Amino acid sequence: MAAPALRRYLLLLAQEHLEFRLPEITSLLSLCGGQFSGEQEIRVNSPFWILNIPSEEMARGLMKRTVCAKSIFELWGHGKSAGELYASLKNYPTDKMLPYLQSDSTYKVHIHTFNKTLTQAQKIKKIDALEFLPFKGKVNLKNPEHVFWILEDYGMDPNDVPEEPIHLYFGRWIADGQRELIESYSVKKRHFIGNTSMDACLSFIMANHGRVKPNDIVYDPFVGTGGLLISSAHFGAYVCGTDIDYNTIHGLGKASRKNQKWRGPDENIRANLRQYGLEKYYLDALVADFSRPIWRKGILFDAIITDPPYGIREAPRRMGSQKETVKSVERSYHLSDIFFDLLKFGAEYLVMGGRLVYWLPIYRPEYTEEIIPRHPCLKLISNCEQLLSSHTSRRLITMEKVKEFKDQDENSYLLDGQYMPYRGHNSFREKYFSGVTKRIAKEEKDNQK
Prior knowledge:
By secondary structure, the chain is of the alpha/beta class. Helices cover about 30% and strands about 25% of the residues. The strands form 2 sheets. It has a 7-stranded mixed beta sheet with strand order 2-1-3-7-6-4-5. It has a 7-stranded mixed beta sheet with strand order 10-9-8-11-12-14-13.
């Protein structure tokens, strides 16, 4: 059976978290049963991407999930000048246009410009120039059946805006993305938060990189106040987590908000999910030390999505017995230990094809791809950077389980000679604060001049 013919679509993307956009779109297309296929080389930083997608249904499915894209359009024509655009439109098959241009239909034309503002008179002139298109319906600006967009790209440099656009597109609007989730799930409005609660946009990006879908079981081993569970639950997954901090799991102790000393009686993870009508997806959260196994063999998760502690606000720790406590007041749990435990756990407890999505802190002057932790059962899917400062960042690592876990894989990282480069993660806290100290000293010196 022949594969369905690919159709061209134009994706309008948000201009934030630029590195995260391509992995999100690629992951969501594969979740919808397709694969990423660009009509041309994707200009990664551009807000306009031309994609080949098998069906409008798949395009709509993509937009029901993405927080990186604003809208998608069935692309009727494009060019590097108005003349090229018009020629492209005249070559577009009329039979594909006509269903949306009938005399008993209503429509409107919208103009979107990137990096330039047009006057109303300029917009009208551009719309009038499309009179060669066989529009037969009536214009309805308030509630049209069909909406067509002219999109113009004036480049990326706000200090050097050309007179004419460098790319022009025309298409039929299909659907908008889920950008409104960023505001409706904002941490500012959330019932229960902590010092490290994840930004809502990044939480949804993580769930999308993890290809979370309805009825999945998603686990966060460093669950904190449960922010990452919320985005997965929004997409219909059942969620659970563990954390070493008893007070956080039970919603006790000091509050993280200004002007609030102690947490209230109903500040907990379950209350967060209840706030968004997602309580039915909440399995539970346990007090547990991730460095010690608590799960029986055979427990499988569809995705593990987490933000491990980097040791900036406090050093990572693990539990110890009373005897161990006598020997050592605090047993250190290095960052390298966390990541190796995390990859080993993912390799053992993820379903085949399941994904591990986690943040890896990086000291940028020393970064190379070799320090990304690896495991023979996990394939690296994407690696995206978010800057924290001039010298530090964190990278969102997405891995997929591609091989069944065997006992010999348990300590494989110790055997392949790659263990030593990862040990640099252990001093991230010292390097982070060293950089902060140097920056403060420089600012004080500059102020004295």
